[in-house]
Amino acid sequence: MENTQSLVDGLITWTDRLVPDRDRAGELARQLRGALADGTLHPNQPVTRSTLDAVEAVCHRTARHLTLELHEQPGEPDQESPGWPPQTRREVISRAGCVRSVQRPPGVSFGELRIDGFDDSEYAGPFLHAAFALLDGVDGLILDLRHNGGGAVSSLAVLAEYVLGPEPEHLATVHYRDQPPRQWWTTGGLTHLHLPAATRVALLIGPGTYSSGEALAYHLKSRGRVRVFGARTPGAADHVTPIRLTPQVSALIPEGTTIDQRTGTNWEGRGVEPDVPSVEDADVLARAWLTD
Description:
Blueprint: H1 4-18, H2 22-37, H3 49-59, E1 67-70, H4 89-94, E2 99-103, E3 110-115, H5 121-134, E4 140-144, H6 153-164, E5 170-176, E6 182-185, E7 200-205, H7 212-222, E8 227-230, E9 238-244, E10 249-260, E11 276-277, H8 282-290
Parallel strand pairs: 3-4, 4-7, 7-8, 8-11
Antiparallel strand pairs: 1-10, 2-3, 5-6, 5-10, 9-10
């Protein structure tokens, strides 16, 4: 039967292979070994969901995005990183490219757009473009990312271009351990489907804003284009990849470090801070600001 020791051994092996910052990978290994030594983690404890929660709590001191999943059916542990499986057109269409709602409330001049994740822009693009068309001519926008758990950077870039404007913008560079860095830009391909520079944008964030959802909030805020309402986000800035560590357990392991082009840093462990803190009435405050 698998135990905590075998799980920790697998984690240390893979983080040492993938985490771009070798010092950070070393710190993660030290914390895991220290937790075994001081009794925070019990080496011979069988792997259960509570075991994974305890290991995650140690990992999150260094890598907020590292998460573990327990499988009912055993599988073959990965020897090489398999990468993410490609999305299918059918699954993206089934959730309308994560476009949850588009509204133009009666009696006001602003619109509201809720995006609950980022699917591959190859399939999600038509849904995003349709949302932008429905919002054409608004004098203000509420962009709701409070339930955005992240996803494909390609759609993040489309949303960023919609808000920032038609000129190509270097958003961030992602650094890896053993491959060249990758730059992420807006493309300048939306033509007329973007907000005028004078249009006010209220951005809603909270604990449910995660990963690439946080990235969009961070990039827009660092460029001074939005006013941010809500609560601080969790602080998961890494690009992660799925790895089967043991027959029973899979993990999302950090493989890329995102660096915002404007700030030279990211939101890892700190999250994105709102300009107007609010736990429950962020949307009310945003609407008041847009109509002020």
